[in-house]
Amino acid sequence: MMGLLLLLLLSSYLHQGCQVTAQRLFTIRAVSLTVEPDSDSSRGTNVTLRCQAVVSSSGPEPLVREFSVFRDGSRVYTKTSSSSEDFLYLLPDARVSNSGKYKCEVSIEGKSMSSESRRLTVRGLSKPALHLNKDVVTEGEEVTATCRAPGETGSIFFYFYDNGNEIHEERVNGNQAEATLRFSSAGIHKIRCDYTVLITPDSYKSEESNTAIVSVKELSITPVLEVSPQYQVFEGDTLNIMCTLRNLLRSLDSPQLYLSQGTHLLSSGTTKVNHSMVALAKGPGLTFECRLDMGHVIKVATRTVLVTELFSVPTLTLAPAEVFQKEPMTLTCRSENVASERLDRKELTYTLHPLENPLISTDTGVFTGKALLFDFNYTCTAEARDIVKQSETLTVRPKVSVSTPKISIYGKAVLGQPIQILCQSDIGSLPINYTLLKGFDEVSTISVQLPGQRAIFRVTAHMPEELSKYMCEAKNSHREAPLSRRLNATVIVPLANPTLTVLPHLPDISEGDHLYLICAVKGSPPVTFKWYRVGDKLPLNTTTTDKNHKDFQIPALSKQDSGIYYCEAVNHANTIVQSDRVTIEVRMALWKKAVIGGVSLLVVSLLLLMACVLYFRSKRGKRESAAELSV
Q: Which GO terms describe its cellular component (predicted)?
């Protein structure tokens, strides 16, 4: 027993070792797909898709290969082969439904590779064949039509036509479709069909089929419509309408009659329908319809009755055409046309709506009063012999008279420069014409048409008192044209004639003095003054004052304060003016001059003294020498 177990274990070990030894190395190098004979083929061609796999392996025996064919991303065929030959996918007698993008995939022991996609286009569809089970029928009788697409496959839409008009559509996954047709009109009907093969995203349409003729016999039963009276019908007359059947056959199943006016169903019944109504004038006439419904058979009789108006729809008018708030106005309601042979105009009564309106009736259809402060909608009705007609809505929009305009400067007024003058009223209906006056002479006019627009005039003043002569007038369609006050505005006079005055006077300026640099101009304050010394980038001083002059002081002058000085000035006219330049030389102080003079005198005195001493010494030496010689 133990020996048998050892023998089995050894056999299993040797078998596993053989399997390991039998494993081979391989690689799928390439997979290609070709379409034969051509990727663009005609219907009926035998098309072959050739899938070729190039595989490298370490053994002589062929590997087991699984070939899969895909069309438009869906797997359509799979086959396993141990042959290294090309795999052929056959499409005999190809159809349009075979068109699409094809791809081949090869799988070997868990490894796979796909080819590039190739598009196959098959052109041409078979001619459809149409067959009818009957060629002579009566109205409403059924006919079965069969349309075939010989040899075609796939998803197909079939279309059926009656005298060129499409009457039925059906989608099938086959090559034929049936349609049940019914004909509601007698005569000859030419029936045809065609089909479309759907191959996403494209579709292919066939030619038309043969033509089949159906002869439809008319049923003798007909609807009859009678209206009384038929002629000389006026508003308010009573109309009697009757809908009946002629040639009723007992074999017919439950006929149904419908009497209607437009989309309004007046009455219904089986064999006879009556209806009475008061005639009203609407549009070109009253059209009635008697409709016979027998399931699949519909027959219609119509009749139009002309109705003459007793009186026309009233119109509501306003006088005057433009009315202003709280001013008198008149509304007139009137029917222009009256059938005098049936109605006296005096029988018409007019009413203004809404009834709580502020106007009073002063005559037939005439209403007067004052316009409101807001928009108001009015309508009126005309009534006679229980017939009431209403006018269209008239919206009265009272206008607002223009208020007294205000005149002002827009921006700032600088003498000698363009000045903008704004003329504006607080209230008033547009358009408003603003006229600028100088004195009482018209300068120009601006029309304000839209909200937000402004009337801004441009003028130039050369004297300050000129601006006070301007006024403006505002006028809309109201009869009054209010005038503004005269323009009251401050005029900015540009600066001129700048001067720089130096105190003390230039020849008297010495070290230690208190220097005043006074800058003065002519023009409107406030004025901003700046003082400069040539060579310095920044001003020595800047100040703003409500006066036309200002001084800048330099206390305790020194020699370093010598230089060239000037000043600048600017006001709201934004014109900078500059003074002439002044050269200031700071001289030595008097006490310094005195000290220097005293020192100089002392030095001279000492020099003279020394000279005298030397002189006297010289004289004395000469006398002593002479005395010694004489001895």
A: external side of plasma membrane
